[in-house]
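Page 47, continued from p. 46.
Same chain as before, 123 aa.
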Amino acid sequence: FLLSHLAFVDFCYSSAITPKMMVNFVVEHNTISFHACATQLGCFLTCMITECFLLASMAYDRYVAICSPLHYSTVMSKRVCVQLVAVPYIYSFLVALFHTIITFRLTYCGPNVINHFYCDDHP
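Result:
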């Protein structure tokens, strides 16, 4: 259950970046608009934060399986697994939304076009 959600998040990583990158390879014009950059950054951050929390959830799952094998089915019920997956999705979306809004509310000098095919949060 947790592994399938981790695979989905990894798929979303590439889906956030690859389409614009493929267009830039064909057109040979490596620019991205401010709105596209904000969307790409928000999707990327959501996936990144979700993956970190899902890996922590998987570590907890393995810890319970190894250290308390007789209590595993009680501790890791379906309800707990759903909560361990739902909370990271919701939390990461809110954090990524907040980070993206704060980043793009700043005033920037110059054009609203970034000369790169990928919008990252590090200069």
